[in-house]
Known about the structure:
The protein is an alpha+beta fold. It has helices at about 50-60, 65-75, 180-205, and strands at about 25-35, 40-50, 80-90, 95-100, 105-110, 110-115, 120-125, 130-140, 140-150, 155-165, 170-175.
Amino acid sequence: MRMTVVALLGVSVLAGAAWAQNAPRVQQEDLDVTIDAVGNATFVDKVTRSAIDWEQYKSNYGGNPSLLKRDLQHQYSSMELRDISLTNDEMNRVSVLSWKAQATAQYIGNGQWQGTIPKGAQATKVNETLWEFTTSYPDPGGITQESFHIHLPKGARGAEQTQNETGEAVLRYTLPDPAGTPLLLYVAVIAAILGAALLLAGFLGKPAAPRA
């Protein structure tokens, strides 16, 4: 499955902005992505709106969250989504949409993984397993400011912003396979046990040697 670390984060389902024609307004979006050791990820998308935008958001999705789920699945149609959840904070005009996605990062061999990142995003490496990206884009009557936090799996190292073979911007990192050695060990142990059982069964199944 074609992966994307943030599923082309530059377009947000939650944003759904409806801008008035007067003073420009700013809408803030924060997306937190946590990637596990096999490339799956948990997404938490938090959007803070102005009063006008909040009313528009409620008009679009507040009465029927299933429409938001439908739009989310359409936007991320290349990924398998599950555990989709939505919470609304009326007092602070904040929506939080979370979901899990399969195959968010792609294994490219030799212990390396990669995922695409937004074009033009300003990247900051906080530490070996945390990267931050910021970007903004104009909407009619206002601006959406986006901040993304990507949490790489524990043990990831050597992360860098680079390009893949098609020229797309990607975040590439190395993650030794912690499950590989134990898995081989378990297979070897099971094989040894089965082998011993077969030998024992063969021994017990032999007819008794004739006595003189």
